[in-house]
Amino acid sequence: NEKPTALIMIFGATGDLANRKLFPSLYNLYAKGQLDKFAVVGVARRSLTNEEFQLRVKESVTEHGEAAANLDEFVSKFYYHSHDVTDSSSYIALGKLAEELDENYRLDGNRIFYLAMAPEFFGTIAEHLKKDKLTNVTGFKRLVIEKPFGHDLESAKVLNKQIRTAFSEDEIYRIDHYLGKEMVQNIEVIRFANAMFEPLWNNRYISNIQVTSSETLGVEERGRYYEKSGALRDMVQNHMLQMVSLLAMEPPIKLTTDEIRSEKVRVFRALRPIIGEEVNDYFVRGQYGQGSMNEKEVPAYRQEEMVDPDSNTETFVAGKLMIDNFRWAGVPFYIRTGKRMKAKSTKIVIQFKDIPMDLYYQREQTVNPNLLVIHIQPEEGITLHLNAKKSGQGTEATPVKLNYANKGIDGLNTPEAYEKLLYDSLRGDATNFTHWDEVALSWSFVDNISAVWENTNEHSFPNYESGSMGPEAADKLLKNDGFFWWPVT
Ligand code: NAD
């Protein structure tokens, strides 16, 4: 495996994402010896000297990573360019710096452009990169682009067209950081490397699948952004639907980027569109009210900073998805995600159908269904819920759990999502990034729902208390089908 060599340009290098995730991740790669020759140019608006910038990077790694003796050597490869995103002369100066660094560090003309900035600049930057010739390279050029990719299908198409003027589809790495998570990547292995799951992975043996991603935090300082987004756009269009596609996809014929992505795309194509009045039967929205979290009183969403006091923005979504193909016909995939919920947890529960006849039925007590639980975060692991004989006399069945904790095995923390995704982009592996076809299909699905929600005011907001598991209607959604949410805490 050849180590990657590249000039990495980070647009938005003074921002929160760069500071908390990107610098520490790059440092980890460096410390593990996974980078060969490289240099980094931080690009942002304010004026900083290289030394000031290097100091910030050092602080970022010390605070958010695990700094060691080689930190000084690492930050010596960081340069800074004060930039105006709309000004050609600024790009031309950046291009000059890039050429110098390429030569000094012998970077083979390879360039990564990482856009860690507000999305309204993505299109403009991509167009300038081309026009001002920063994409004229002798090696590879790749665009790594943060979410959100558009606000709906229309705006996503406009953005895609803009970035496609400078980069081809296979040069575009659209980040969905859930796809960098260890246990999300594990879904594929659990399914396709075990003889005991794949034969059962269909509507004959699975009764329903539940994907929960709950946060305890509220909107914090992101009110301005969140008011225009809401949970449907911020979480469902990307992360939730991506997890569903990995759970539902057919086995790819090979583990290549193209094969895996095309199987995922087929899931999106089979996703039943939810249109008009059906939205109320399949989807539930919520907004948090005040409540108590860790014995502290917290305000309602409508009282948060930069939030309209009459806001109809949803901070919670639950939905029932149907995948209309041979494998999944009739099996609901329930998803839910929200802020200010009882626990911070991302989990997938696969509930198997009941056995044909319950020999162990006792005093209105049926045996529990088998569950396969995939813990994505904060714990990472797998739990298999089975039934076994209760010790002692008699033949009573009792539930038992087989547990596998990812972190317990090798004693190491698994690398952060961003570390893996950065490494993948440097190596040119786009498997764990979203293809345009996935983005487009998931926006079309979500747009039908927002169209209904935006045209009907929700008078019951706020409809769930901070510190709860969301509105009652989300429980009803499953109850109507004879199911309930398996607890995630
Ligand atoms: P931020 O507001 O903290 O940082 C923005 C950066 O852009 C700063 O470096 C700023 O100097 C630069 N910038 C802004 N206007 C500029 C201009 N006109 N010219 C040049 N530079 C300019 O934002 P962030 O939280 O780091 O987020 C960046 C991107 O990453 C966004 O797309 C966001 O949605 C995405 N994202 C962030 C996080 C996170 O944890 N912060 C998580 C997932 C995705």
The main sheet comes to: 8 strands, mixed
Number of DSSP-assigned strands: 17
Taking Cα atoms only, what radius of gyration do you get, to the nearest Å? 24 Å
User: If strands are numbered along the chain, what order do they take across the biggest sheet?
Assistant: 8-11-12-7-13-14-15-16
**Which hetero ligands occur in this complex?**
nicotinamide-adenine-dinucleotide
Assembly context of the chains: single chain
* Structural category: alpha/beta
What form results from the Cα inertia axes?
globular
Q: Strand percentage, roughly?
A: 15-25%
Which segments are poorly predicted (pLDDT under 50) over 5 or more consecutive residues?
none
**What is the helix fraction of residues, given as a range?**
25-40%
What is the distance, rounded to the nearest whole angstrom, between the alpha carbons of the first and last residues?
A: 41 Å
Q: Mean pLDDT, nearest integer?
A: 95
